[in-house]
Amino acid sequence: MVSKLSLALGIYCWAMSVVQAQEVEFVGESLQVAPSGYIQLDWSGEAEFFWLEQAKDSLFEETKVIYRGPDKASFVSGLLDGQYYYRVKANEGEWSNVLQVQVQHQSLNLALTLSGLGLLVFSLTSVVIIKGSRSTPSTS
Amino acid sequence: MNHQSFIISPETGWILLAVLSALWIFLGVYWGKKAKNMDGFMLAGRNVGLAFGAATAMATWVTSNTTMLAPQFALQLGIWGMIAYSTASFGLFLFAPLANRIKALMPTGYTSGDFIRLRYGKFTWYVFLVISIFYGFTWLVSMGMAGGILMNAIAGIPYELGMTVILGVCVVYTLFGGLYAVIGTDFIQSLIILIGIVVVGVGVLTQVDFGHIYINVLDEKPMLLNALMPAAIMSVFNNLLFGLGEVFHSNVWWSRAFAMREKIGKKAYLLSGLFWFPVPIAAGFIALTSGSLGVNITSPDMVGPLVASHVLGQAGAVIVFAVFFCSLASSIDSLLAATSDLITEDIYRKMINPKAGEKLLRKVSAGIIIGLGVLAWAFCMPRIGTLATVLFFAGPMVGSTIWPIVTGLFWRKANAKGAMLGMILGSSIGLVAYFQLGWYTASLIGAAVSMVTVLVCTYLFPDDFEWNTLNESKSQE
């Protein structure tokens, strides 16, 4: 009787762990755009150990392990332009849904134009302050 | 909230929290005894010297924004991000000459709002108050959030509890001590922060090799080393102008200018800028080591505490905890005091009850400090976004105040039309940029639009302002 019970309990625990492992999935949309080359990856599921992979193709033929450990999030940055695919699994469980990230950095021309504008505003502000504090008596 | 493993046990975290909280409350109450009147409570008797003046400015500027956001900048935007953050020191450098000018023009002034009201009139003042209070509150919320995030990440203290304790402690000691307590605690906090940063820096340098860091970043995060990364390039002047706008308009900095002895302000702000400048570079650098150290970053705003604690181990995590607690407390207390001054002086005394006596004003000020704390707590509870997104939402607004403040202090011809339109147009168009282009463009666009507006209005409608109007004690005689 006791051995039957322990067998049933064992099967139940195994089934639960499989169910929990299969429940690992990314939080949020499965297609995301990262215009600055960084992305926050969060996933749900209960396990002591997660395995996060990145690939440049949707079939995950060439993968890179991004993280192995107990955390349920990872921040990825410094990505070049292109498509990136991510998947995560718990312990020996099934892989999660695939998260596709599209990296398309902003226009360099826009960045340089805005920087030029910023330099102009900063320079003129400095000139007004320095000239003002030199030429204006404290109270006149 | 992201799940991650904790660095010190929750028990150790709670003990640290209790000890630091008791220390600041004790010091706040002790220094608060000096505040005999409203000038004492709001402006520390207008007698703050160079050492305390420089230390309070430096400590206030080393906020969660430096210890948590500077590493976040480096992790998101690479080398340019690190440099971008350190440009915020220009806010302190350029405010140095303004501090002396402010003190000379308004020897009996209380708030930045006083200046706008006297210089540009009521309507511009209303717009300014909306911007200034919104910004102060956003900063306060971002700081409360940072406290909760930090204590959760390091010690596993639930976000809600950690955030509540740090806000509560700062409310209590600011309530008792006013600006005396704020400046006194800032002095000690700035020493702890500087020592802690040196310890963390030495710890990182002894454990990692520059060549290894470079190769790791080049392999894993190549865009961070790209000198032409568009978002990073845009962030440099955006952050610089955001810092300028923050310091120039905020009552946190004006109240210190009023509190310092005559001609001390310039030296104090220059010194604080010099001390502050290397802090974000050091803090940012450690973020770039996260990959080679194998530290998983669960949220970008946690990269600094996570790497520092990883490098220094359990004992080091205690130092990190103390440094971050101090950097948060030194800013939260300043914000509570300065925003409460602004609301008490500019809204209650100037708009609602001009005949209010000192006792009543002190009560109102205390009520506002408590109210601000409770409101900030309510906004912090849902943890709205990352620190950068919360704080930079106020970016276009503060950027749009730079030119109205600067020209108002130095140009007789600067006028209310230019100041008001500059703030409204700069804020509006900057907010469009925030949503259309990204948070790293909003302050820049806001400041540029405001500058053009002020210049055009000064040319079209020149004023002839009488500087003595700013000295209320003279104009009342």
From TrEMBL, chain A:
Q: Which residues form the signal peptide?
A: 1-21
Q: Give the record's keywords alphabetically.
A: Membrane, Signal, Transmembrane, Transmembrane helix
Origin superkingdom? Bacteria
Q: Where are the transmembrane segments?
A: 110-130
Tell me the protein's name.
Two component regulator three Y domain-containing protein
UniProtKB/TrEMBL annotation, chain B:
MF term (GO), any: urea transmembrane transporter activity
Stored InterPro entries = DUR, Na/Glc_symporter_sf, Na/solute_symporter, Na/solute_symporter_CS
Compartment annotation: Membrane
Tell me, in one coarse class, where this protein mainly resides: membrane
User: Which GO cellular component terms are attached?
Assistant: membrane
Presence of the UniProt keyword Transmembrane in the record:
yes
List the keywords (alphabetical). Answer: Membrane, Transmembrane, Transmembrane helix, Transport
Transmembrane ranges, per UniProt, are 12-31, 43-62, 74-96, 125-155, 161-183, 190-215, 227-248, 269-295, 315-339, 360-379, 385-406, 418-437, 443-461
Q: Which Pfam family, an example, fits this chain?
A: SSF
For membrane topology, the record states: Multi-pass membrane protein
| Family per record | Belongs to the sodium:solute symporter (SSF) (TC 2.A.21) family.
Name of the protein this chain belongs to? Transporter, SSS family
Record organism: Reichenbachiella agariperforans
